[in-house]
Design a protein that fits this description.
This protein is of the alpha+beta class. About 20% of the residues lie in helices and about 25% in strands. It has 6 helices and 14 strands. The strands form 3 sheets. Strands 3-4-2-1-14-13 form a 6-stranded mixed beta sheet. A 6-stranded mixed beta sheet has the order 5-6-7-8-12-9. α3 packs parallel to α4 (about 180-190). The longest helix is centred in the middle third of the chain and has 22 residues, at about 125-145. The two termini are about 15 Å apart.
Length: about 270
């Protein structure tokens, strides 16, 4: 995607579930699919442990916002260095979780997010999830006000509708499917953002996550929680969107599959 004359840009998101444990799988995916931008979640490493040199070897510039053992987000760009705009969300100065990273790259504003899971429900973790979603909404509104082509990519930890899960009853008590979670997600779309995967797969049945337990992968018991939201300026350039599902079935894989969108590149 770094080459001249490219007509589309592929923007991708991958919850890698531990960058050190999955580094071979991650490098394999990058070289096979070559996204222009890759937003990573759950890197689970402190800043000093991030393997930037490994990405440089295959032509990717990187920025990252790490946290030892938990959370953590990063952004990779093919042949470019993302220019960081913001890390973290305003509104709770005491919040030390590494979950948000925003940059300018390839003429776009791109944010990678790892939204809180929120379980168990009810409880303080669910309350934190809902507050975080409201803080995200405020930041997305600020981005929208700039009228720049923008994409918000990542693990949103929200199953938007029943069509986005293999069996709604199986997840009914989970934070990912609570009415409050879904309403907060719906408000982002009502603000003018486009859910790219849903737009191109309106019947649903597209999964991005399969639990390690109970043979979920083998039985295709999955759900969609990894999303790509596009601003009006970028949604007009949407060409394709999908999930690199086969990467979930590889040895020592993450429990998520990468999601991606392709948009027309500006001349």
């Amino acid at each position: 995607m770094a080459a001249t004359g490219v007509t589309t840009l592929r923007l991708a998101s991958f919850n890698i579930n531990g960058i050190k444990a999955r580094l071979p799988r991650l490098l394999e995916w990058l070289e096979e699919t070559r996204p222009a931008v890759a937003c990573l979640q759950e890197i689970k490493t402190a800043d000093e442990g991030f393997p930037a040199a490994e990405f440089e070897k295959i032509g990717y510039g990187a920025i990252w916002h790490g946290q030892k053992g938990f959370n953590g987000v990063a952004m990779l760009a093919d042949g470019q260095q993302p220019v960081e705009v913001q890390r973290g969300l305003a509104g709770e100065p005491e919040d030390e979780h590494s979950r948000y990273l925003e940059a300018d790259v390839f003429g776009l504003r791109v944010a990678g997010i790892y939204l809180p899971n929120g379980n168990p429900v009810p409880g303080p973790k669910f309350d934190y999830k809902l507050r975080w979603m409201e803080r995200l909404r405020r930041r997305m509104a600020a981005i929208a006000a700039e009228e720049v082509p923008a994409a918000i990519l990542g693990d949103f930890n929200v199953i938007p509708e029943d069509k986005d899960v293999w069996a709604p009853a199986a997840m009914a008590s989970d934070a990912l499917m609570q009415p409050e979670s879904r309403d907060a997600y719906a408000r982002l779309l009502a603000d003018g953002w486009t859910d790219a995967l849903d737009t191109l797969n309106p019947r649903g049945g597209v999964w991005t996550f399969w639990d390690y337990q109970a043979g979920a992968w083998q039985r295709d018991h999955g759900f969609r929680i990894d999303h790509a939201l596009l601003s009006p300026e970028l949604a007009d350039r949407l060409v394709a969107a999908g999930v690199d599902k086969d990467h979930r079935g590889r040895e020592k894989a993450s429990d998520h599959a990468p999601v991606w969108v392709e948009v027309r590149a500006e001349p």
